[in-house]
């Protein structure tokens, strides 16, 4: 990866934390990865997972379930990885807030340190979340030092990510959790670097579980590769299993926009915003902007276009970290 340009490195690291923030929120009580030999996952961690991935309720996960999980299940590295991803989302909307950046770095380190201890009793998951911790560390380096000053150190951290994933693969190469996380990372790399093979990443994801998160990964990769029919097929599979997840509706809207199907995309933008008060404000602001741009494309014969950046900024200006209610969102008409 030494040949990465600065902008590709920035894109790669920025996308990495998004991938990790998705991939680390995967385990729930009853172990959704493994039918045989399930791993023990705490009840409160499960509640946080369900709030985010089934209900799209980031607010409940952040304010209720994750604090309870940290108090009652402190030896689970997944908790701190989830906390890191939530703090990173907050920082995206307040990039001058040093306290948020320091908190992100703390949770990234806590993820890695707790995972190192877990290796003694569960070397597979321990190595997986050591990899996650190093990935979050890489994002912290780029965030704090910038692309040019932090690229070398960040790419060194990425080497640690793959070193730990290699150790996990030696233990259980067919493990669904391993294949889900590794597949997401491989797909991310393949769509950002030349000469990489995204089809191999997709084949790995097909061995991952839970299936709706594997489908989501394939849909994201297919979208980025401009394979819109395949992307829509896989996001539809994911929606069949988690029909109320706002991020899946957002993803489908993006796919439809890229495929020049803006009219159909509007329905999914609206579904993505149905419970906007439970989503991070920055996410809501971005959905509002993209919905506006899509509607402008539909109304391309009109002389007076909506100011989509102003609508996004209107959401950003609302007090608090969560999105406004549906009735408070800027109107397209």
From TrEMBL:
Xref: Gene3D superfamilies: Tetratricopeptide repeat domain
Database matches in PROSITE patterns: TPR
Keyword terms: Signal, TPR repeat
TPR repeats: 212-245
Keyword Cell inner membrane listed: no
Leader peptide range in chain numbering: 1-29
Keyword hit for Signal: yes
Protein name: Sll0314/Alr1548 family TPR repeat-containing protein
Provenance organism: Floridaenema fluviatile BLCC-F154
């Amino acid at each position: 990866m030494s040949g990465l340009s600065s902008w590709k490195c920035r894109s790669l690291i920025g996308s990495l934390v998004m991938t990790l923030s998705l991939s680390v929120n995967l385990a729930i009580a009853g172990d959704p990865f493994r039918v045989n030999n399930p791993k023990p996952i705490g009840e409160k961690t499960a509640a946080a997972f369900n709030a985010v991935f089934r209900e799209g309720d980031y607010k409940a996960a952040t304010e209720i379930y994750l604090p309870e999980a940290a108090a009652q299940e402190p030896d689970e590295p997944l908790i701190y990885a989830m906390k890191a991803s939530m703090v990173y989302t907050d920082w995206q909307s307040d990039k001058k807030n040093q306290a948020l950046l320091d908190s992100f770095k703390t949770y990234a380190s806590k993820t890695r340190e707790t995972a190192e201890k877990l290796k003694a009793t569960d070397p597979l998951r321990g190595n997986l979340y050591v990899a996650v911790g190093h990935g979050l560390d890489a994002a912290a380096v780029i965030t704090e030092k910038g692309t040019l000053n932090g690229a070398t150190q960040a790419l060194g951290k990425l080497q640690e990510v793959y070193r730990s994933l290699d150790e996990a693969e030696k233990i259980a190469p067919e493990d669904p959790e391993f294949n889900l996380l590794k597949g997401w990372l491989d797909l991310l790399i393949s769509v950002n670097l030349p000469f990489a093979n995204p089809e191999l990443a997709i084949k790995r994801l097909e061995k991952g579980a839970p299936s709706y998160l594997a489908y989501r990964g394939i849909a994201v990769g297919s979208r980025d590769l401009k394979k819109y029919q395949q992307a829509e097929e896989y996001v539809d599979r994911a929606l069949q299993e988690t029909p109320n997840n706002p991020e899946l509706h957002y993803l489908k809207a993006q796919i439809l926009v890229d495929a020049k199907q803006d009219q159909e995309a509007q329905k999914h933008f609206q579904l993505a915003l149905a419970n906007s008060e439970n989503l991070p404000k920055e996410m809501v602001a971005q959905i509002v902007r993209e919905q506006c741009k899509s509607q402008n494309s539909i109304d391309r014969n009109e002389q007076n276009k909506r100011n989509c950046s102003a609508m996004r900024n209107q959401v950003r200006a609302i007090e608090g970290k969560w999105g406004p209610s549906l009735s408070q969102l800027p109107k397209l008409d």
